[in-house]
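Predict structure. Chain length: 373.
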Amino acid sequence: MFQADIVREDAPSFQGEGQLAIKVDSVSKSFTRWQRKEDASEKADRSGKKSAVEEESSSEKKALRKKGILGKVEFKSIFRQEKKTLTALDNVSFQVRRGEFVAYAGPNGAGKSTTMKLLSGMLQPTTGAISVLGMSPEKDRIALMKKLGVLFENRTELWWDHPVIQSFEWKKVVWDIPDAVYRRNLDMVTELLDIGEIRNTFARELSLGQRMRADLAMMLLHSPELILLDEPTLGLDVVAKRQMIEFLKRINREEGVTILVTSHDMDDLEEMAQRILMISGGKLVYDGSFDGLREITGNLTHFTVTTDGGQPELEGCKLLGGKNGVFEFEVDLSCCPMKGLLKRLSQADGIMDVEIWKAPIEQVIAQLYREWR
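Prediction complete.
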């Protein structure tokens, strides 16, 4: 179902182009790369199936390697290369309204970072059209960058051997940021990101969390209307992650900044974003809410029951574990509605307390990834 058709749940409708921050229309992106060509024996090694001749050839190669001799055929294969085309994005289309906070998720290699690079003008699409804030990333890159903020994981614009504030001052001059705008934004990011104590610290001396906050602050100095974030919370501790998430939610809510963010931490994405786009194998496979994802996988729900010691027998519920009279179950509400579940709980003997909550979004996404593979 997922690979054939995009699942769109409550997909937004748009009145006009002026309301759009991002418009991706039938975009595909392919890369060409060269790689060493495998010979028949290597393919057999990989598949685990060998003929008698290939077994003998393989034994000869192993004997030559033990003597430190490289066989002629093996030596020639180093220079035999073949061209391979890799499709990173395959006919992807989506839109993001101004002021939206949208999550962009998928397995490793699905095409998330490629999409971010296309939106920022670092790459050009093979086919299709892209519009960002009403401009073409290919033709209007300089004008677009004045309104766009981009932050990629583990990459920094901070000058390594200089205090953080000097990097900020450098951006003010190079980007020609007006004094009033620079001062306002500097005060805002200093307070909200809690970077007052590190503004005069050399970038090389910052922890990962401090550097990520400083990079985010630097990205916002020119008042971007749209920001693209690729794994902004990767490697952050609990405190730094909370600061990052709360700040992003605040500038989206109060400043109206449009945000598109990728992450493998689905709990973070669910807390931040109102909508999620999911990509798999270069194809957009879902566009909608997080609750919609749960419904696709069967609306899994967890609940804990506290009993007088015995394990309750609940038909249609999967026991996940339990001890000392506390038992955790999983139930699919699409098969066993909440009304029926509550009836079974009320009829079970020895139940003293019940706590019900939705299945973690991480579990839902993991189940989807397994189905797509």
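Summary: Residues 7-29+93-293 form a domain with the Rossmann fold fold (CATH 3.40.50.300).
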